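Annotated sample (chain length 115).
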Amino acid sequence: MVQYLGSPLDLSFAALSDATRRGIIDQLGRGDASITSLADQFQMTLTGMKKHVQVLERAGLVVTQKVGRVRTCKLGKRGLNAEAEWIEAHRKLFEARFEALDEIISEMKQEGSDD
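Output written by the structure step:
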């Protein structure tokens, strides 16, 4: 099935949904790397690595630069602030729901012990 991703959040979360791409982000956090060295490190084909890097580039998480025959990757400047804010807002929502559920369970236990 074809999925059309448009918003920056959609692109970021889709890019980060894959363990290899998260590993690439981790690696690039330690320093720039060529696509060839990333492919070697992750034990995959050059074509496979290029596809992963393209997904990360589309999301703005990675930028590449070609000098001669070497394409070097580095972290993009965009960061993950919007994604972190979205996660935090939803974390708070879940916590509120769980707290409400805890209260209901406590009330039910109280009613059960009154019998």
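Annotation: The chain has a mean pLDDT of 90.
Annotation: The first strand starts at residue 33 and ends at 34.
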